[in-house]
């Protein structure tokens, strides 16, 4: 493996709303790279998150300023970006009720918020139960050209990097189940909703839930943030985040997502993961590595995910574990661009950085 260079997509470390996180990347047919992220935020958890996109026409050397795609009343988080062929793209994200995390900072007697939250408390005071209920969920928007974005669709599952397009043109989404009929249910780490596969044959207008990834005793109710790739033989290889310690486990489906194998645990430290099928036939799995030295790592499989290489260190210079959610795309020359969120100093806000490397 060869590290070619480190690149910067967006880094505004001292701006008040300069926090960007949880990115994904796609490539349009003309070679334009598009990164989606949650950005223009105050911090890791805040009410101001928006879905933003950046574009590069020179293989990641330079990037546009963030373009806002979504700005719902709630916190828009974990943006996925998927190429639909040509210039067409889809973006996925979910919304979060920041109040459930920040309510401990509000004095129940005086109704005053901690002064360190700036005016975030005033924003949260404007969130009615009805507003939260209407805007909570897992969502998708489609763009015909990467510029205009169509109406918002709901999806029954959620994962950081969204769905994949199968060889037959249908969409396969492996994620934490989030029933469309109960938009107010927010499924997060530790909750009982399973990791489920959902399929759409009409570009997200309707979905069919296929099957759940089985839990074992030691991972029960502790799975989230999955991704999936379709192998050359038609199998689906899925990866799932698990905790204690933070690591990635793998599951397979040989029937299009209806049934999934009991997850295998190859002691792959780091998560959540993103899977890329390289033109060489190799499967590239990248993870955020929230152990010292903090950074991003990759492993490579040449046998469809049955065995994996040792860790490839893409970066190990973060001051703490607020990082990761990497995603990869293959460039025209066969090299790989892996993007992620990362900070360089403890007092800085996180930005979107990347590594160009070669198998």
Describe the protein in words:
With 359 residues, this protein is mainly β. It has a single domain (2-97, 136-358), classed as Neuraminidase (6 Propeller), CATH 2.120.10. 5% of the residues lie in helices and 44% in strands. The chain contains 3 helices and 25 strands. Strands 10, 11, 12, 13 and 14 form a 5-stranded antiparallel beta sheet that branches. It has a 4-stranded antiparallel beta sheet with strand order 1-25-24-23, with no helix packed on it. It is globular, with a radius of gyration of 19 Å.
Question: Topology, please?
Answer:
Layout: E1 2-10, E2 19-27, E3 33-41, E4 50-56, E5 67-70, E6 75-83, E7 89-96, H1 99-102, H2 120-125, H3 129-135, E8 138-143, E9 153-154, E10 157-158, E11 164-165, E12 171-177, E13 195-200, E14 208-212, E15 224-230, E16 236-242, E17 247-253, E18 264-269, E19 273-277, E20 283-289, E21 295-301, E22 312-315, E23 324-330, E24 336-342, E25 351-358
Summary tags:
five-stranded antiparallel β-sheet, 3 helices, 25 strands, globular
Task: Summarize it.
The protein is built from three helices and 25 strands. With 359 residues, it is mainly β.
| Number of E strands | 25
- What is the percentage of strand-forming residues? 35-45%
Supply the helix-strand structural class. Answer: mainly beta
Q: Roughly how many Å is the radius of gyration? A: 19 Å
């Amino acid at each position: 493996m060869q590290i070619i260079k480190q690149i910067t997509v967006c880094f505004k470390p001292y701006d008040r709303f300069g926090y960007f996180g949880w990115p994904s990347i796609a490539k349009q047919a003309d070679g334009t790279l598009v990164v989606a992220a949650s950005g223009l935020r105050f911090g890791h958890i805040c009410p101001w998150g928006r879905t933003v996109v950046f574009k590069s026409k020179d293989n990641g050397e330079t990037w546009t300023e963030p373009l806002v795609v979504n700005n719902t009343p709630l916190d828009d988080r974990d943006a996925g970006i998927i190429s639909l062929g040509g210039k067409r793209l889809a973006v996925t994200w979910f919304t979060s009720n920041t109040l459930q995390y920040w309510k401990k900072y509000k004095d129940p007697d005086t109704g005053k918020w901690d002064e360190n939250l700036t005016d975030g408390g005033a924003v949260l005071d404007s969130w009615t139960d009805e507003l939260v209920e209407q805007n909570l969920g897992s969502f998708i928007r489609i763009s015909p050209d990467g510029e205009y974005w169509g109406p918002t669709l709901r999806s029954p599952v959620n994962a950081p990097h969204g769905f994949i397009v199968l060889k037959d043109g249908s969409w396969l989404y492996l994620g934490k189940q989030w029933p469309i009929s109960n938009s107010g249910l927010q499924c997060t780490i530790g909750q009982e909703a399973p990791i489920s596969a959902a399929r759409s044959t009409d570009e997200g207008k309707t979905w069919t839930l296929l099957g759940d990834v089985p839990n074992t005793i030691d991972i029960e109710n502790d799975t989230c943030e999955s991704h999936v790739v379709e192998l050359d033989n038609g199998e689906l290889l899925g990866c799932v985040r698990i905790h204690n310690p933070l690591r990635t486990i793998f599951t397979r489906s040989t029937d299009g997502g209806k049934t999934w194998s009991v997850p295998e645990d190859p002691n792959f430290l780091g998560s959540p993961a993103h899977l890329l099928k390289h033109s060489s036939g190799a499967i590239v799995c990248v993870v955020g590595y929230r152990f010292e030295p903090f950074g991003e790592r990759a492993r490579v499989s040449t046998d469809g995910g049955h065995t994996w290489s040792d860790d490839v260190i893409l970066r190990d210079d973060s001051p703490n574990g607020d990082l990761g959610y990497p995603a990869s795309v293959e460039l025209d020359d066969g090299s790989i661009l892996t993007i992620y969120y990362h900070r360089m100093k403890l007092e800085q806000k996180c930005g979107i950085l990347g590594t160009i490397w070669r198998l």
